[in-house]
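Question: Hello, beginner here. Any chance you could explain the protein record under this note? Any guidance would be welcome.
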Amino acid sequence: MIQCVLKVHMNSEVDFDDIEAVLFDFDGTLVHLNIDFARMRADVEALLPRYDLSVDGKASRYTLELVEECVQALTVRNRGEVLAEAFRRDAEAAIVAIEMEAASAAEIHPGVPELLAGLREREIKIGIVTRNCRVAVEHILSRNRLPYDALLTRDDVDVVKPDPAHLLAALELLGVAPDRALMVGDHPMDVRAGRAVGARTVAVLTGYSPAERFLPEQPDLILEWVGELTIYLEDSHHRDTESTELV
């Protein structure tokens, strides 16, 4: 349970008055998922010799990007498409196995149900954009009965964040312009992608990234945990109520 609250104001206050949709990252933002990324990486790298591939020059890639680069390398070889598809299938199976293992023990972050209920009450649309697989995310969402209007996992898009196309696809599904959206995530790539599409951005510190890692990305707000957004939602509601009473 998070007991301390840290607010680091960057460019502006987050005002829900003109926000029509909130896009959330999933792992580390809405839920705690103890994914063993080191094991995931090792399991994928263990496949490389079988396909006469090497990790040389790819050490800095995220695991998903490593897989895509290997698929591209295999595609140009003789029988490349067959080999590439086989490698992708093997790599995906290794990754999903670890994601599902983590999903079975996932815990919702404090305040998330209340925050999502508040967004629903205000008729603010809820989108989830994640690099995780759909089966793992849907398992957690259904088990915890968390509401959402759009879910775009890596299985649903051609490119994943930090590519802004991932966020734009979600906003298109929601029918909301980027400048009317808020992107919330626990990794600098979430803020980077949000700013790239023209959305406002909130960083939360419930993942593996300390506040200092977010500063170069210039989020509008850095919060200790996502449930704190409820404070801003309630402030906006109170302003609306006071305005109505004055009419």
